[in-house]
Task: structure prediction
Amino acid sequence: MDEVDHREANPQEDQIPLPPANFGFLVFSLRTQAEMQLGLMHFSEEEKPEPDLQMARHTIDLLAVLLDKTKGNLDMDEQRYLENSLTELRFRYVQVREEVAKTAAQKA
Result:
């Protein structure tokens, strides 16, 4: 059996293991999504992507809903991680929005 046949017989052997499905990873996923939407994170050598402020705001709002709906049900670390993520994303959102406005004014 060659390498290709072996992978087809056992496709899960070549897969990267999934992270645990827990609250911290949920917050991390949403936080990373917002950072990508703000143009703070990209994976190619190309130019920095344009921020999608509407989608970033929506993702940040989802994290705020999560904070509100889980109040009193999180341990201290989870609570801090969610609150700190929200604070940082809100701050970065304002920075990026101002940067976009400044760039648009310079082009006009």
